[in-house]
Amino acid sequence: MLDLHHIFAMQKKALFFLLALCALGWGFTSYPTVFAGIAVGACFGTYNFWILVRRMDKFDRSISEGKKTVSLGSALRFGSGIASVAIAITLPQYFHLISTVIGLMIPYVFLFIGVIVSSVRNK
């Protein structure tokens, strides 16, 4: 299995590629709000994944040191998701709500694809 930091590095590379595609879609299609929503959602989704990686490191350290375990930051990630949706709701002329929610899920789709590719390579 891949290290969580390696997975996050791959996520960042995929995010930059996705943001470039969103910038092209925003600039050259008739759906700029959809591509802007995907970009905002993907940024917040990657931020949520970064929070998860950071909290998992703290969790692993506390388990290995025998200390009491800490929270994995679910409330912070939930709040971040609410913030991205709030941006899309308050600025509908710039961001499409449904595409923002889809963008929030893109890092997890990238994670799923990465696991599949990793398991195929290891076979």
UniProtKB/TrEMBL annotation:
It is a multi-pass membrane protein. One of its GO terms (cellular component) is plasma membrane. The lineage of its organism: Bacteria, Bacillati, Bacillota, Bacilli, Bacillales. InterPro entries: ATP_synth_I, ATP_synth_I_Bacilli. This is ATP synthase I. Its main location: membrane. Signal peptide: none annotated. The keyword Transmembrane helix applies. It is found in: Cell membrane. The chain crosses the membrane at residues 35-53, 74-95, 101-120. The keyword Cell membrane applies. Keywords: Cell membrane, Membrane, Transmembrane, Transmembrane helix.
